[in-house]
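Query structure, 452 tokens:
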């Protein structure tokens, strides 16, 4: 007799449920352990991501205080607004300059001859060429193009970034006017044509305004620029002129130290440190109502301790009084956070700036040490990336173990199905034999199937 293909059909047992129960009982302990390991790994990985992000934010704030240039920012003030603007780099000299704007830089303006037919006038087919200050482009004119069409072609021409064409009509008649944005003495617009057919638009055009330099007087000395920006008149200062002064009228440009930007950078650093400490404390929190992602992580607690030590340490390379953050008004609360006494900081920035600079930027300074320590934790093969890689390896192992478990479970299931199929076959055979015997016994005379 062949195997029964539907388990339980011969025996009457719910074989599928029995097999499922056996398989589940076999894999449940392994699956439970894998789930636990995966949950721990994922939680730790998430916590390390938050830790790395918090430390990186602190590093960003420290980087704004780790070079001398960060403390030497300049601000400019101008006695009269509207004539020029200015910016200064951190190396600009601290000084005051008298500046008179004599004239602004301008591009040239070229006007065609009077066009008798106005904007609807057409011309012979030809090419117009435009050039100024090393730039050029061409416009092909068709015999059917009107003056208005030519204007549009010029304005939309490929390679045209410096000429704007317009049609003007005065009492004298209609002209095509070309305005060039190429400023600077000698950078006049030149318009030419291939033949005499377009002479009225090219050869016979006149320069109504020549290109000119911007001119200023700096402490009485004349300075020219081909544009409206003077980038080298004063070293590390850029001046952009806006409007000409009246004759011999000057405006004072003063370059001074921008302690306000330094103060803000220190304030931002204090906020960033407090935010980072708050995030790290949250990650290691262990209370009745909340447990942090890195609650029992000794490495994270070690990072918190090291950050607090860096903040509290004195900077031995500073020779003056500002050897610690506390000396410039940045003190530590009982909770470990920082608070800032602005009056003390203002005094330090005004009277002891070089020591404040050293406190942050020296190789043993606060910003330099914080940046270096955070880099060791978060960059490249640092402590945190190495741990993240280790956890990822663990997750990969768990995934492979799940695959192995699935294969083992499948094999167990197949084996059980075969065994129960064999059992079904035996039971079915026995049932058939029993039925056969019972049927034949009933044929025996006076057999009732029971004893009297």
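Result returned for the query:
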């Amino acid at each position: 007799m062949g195997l029964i293909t539907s388990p339980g059909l011969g025996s009457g047992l719910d074989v599928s449920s029995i097999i499922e129960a056996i398989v589940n009982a076999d894999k449940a302990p392994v699956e439970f352990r894998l789930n636990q390991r995966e949950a721990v790994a994922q939680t730790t990985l998430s916590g390390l991501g938050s830790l790395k992000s918090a430390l990186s934010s602190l590093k960003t704030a420290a980087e704004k205080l780790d070079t001398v240039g960060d403390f030497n920012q300049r601000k400019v003030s101008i006695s009269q607004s509207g004539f020029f603007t200015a910016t200064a780099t951190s190396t600009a000299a601290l000084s005051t300059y008298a500046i008179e704007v004599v004239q602004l830089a301008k591009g040239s303006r070229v006007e065609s001859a009077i066009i008798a037919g106005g904007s609807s006038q057409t011309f012979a087919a030809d090419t117009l060429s435009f050039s100024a200050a090393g730039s050029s482009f061409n416009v092909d004119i068709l015999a059917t193009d009107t003056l208005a069409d030519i204007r549009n072609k010029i304005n939309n021409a490929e390679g045209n970034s410096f000429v704007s064409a317009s049609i003007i009509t005065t009492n004298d008649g209609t002209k095509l006017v070309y305005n060039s944005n190429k400023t600077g003495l000698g950078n006049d617009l030149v318009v030419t044509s291939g033949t005499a057919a377009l002479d009225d638009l090219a050869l016979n055009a006149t320069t109504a305004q020549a290109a000119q330099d911007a001119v200023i007087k700096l402490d009485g000395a004349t300075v020219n620029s081909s544009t409206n920006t003077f980038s080298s008149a004063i070293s590390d200062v850029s001046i952009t002129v806006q409007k000409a002064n009246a004759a011999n009228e000057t405006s004072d440009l003063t370059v001074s130290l921008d302690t306000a930007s330094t103060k803000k950078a220190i304030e931002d650093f204090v906020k960033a440190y407090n935010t980072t400490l708050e995030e790290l404390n949250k990650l290691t929190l262990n209370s009745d109502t909340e447990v942090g992602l890195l609650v029992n992580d000794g490495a994270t607690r070690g990072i918190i301790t090291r950050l607090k030590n860096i903040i509290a340490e004195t900077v031995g390379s500073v020779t003056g009084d500002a050897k610690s953050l506390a000396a410039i008004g940045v003190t530590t609360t009982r909770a470990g956070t920082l608070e800032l006494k602005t009056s003390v900081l203002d005094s330090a920035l005004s009277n002891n700036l070089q020591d404040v600079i050293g406190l942050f930027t020296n190789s043993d300074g606060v910003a330099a040490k914080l940046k270096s320590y955070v880099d060791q934790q978060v960059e490249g093969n640092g402590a945190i990336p190495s741990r993240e890689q280790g956890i990822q390896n663990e997750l990969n192992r768990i995934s492979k173990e799940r695959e192995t478990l699935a294969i083992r479970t499948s094999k167990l299931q197949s084996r059980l199905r075969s065994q129960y199929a064999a059992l079904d076959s035996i039971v079915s055979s026995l049932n058939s034999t029993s039925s056969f015997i019972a049927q034949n016994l009933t044929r025996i005379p006076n057999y009732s199937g029971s004893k009297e």
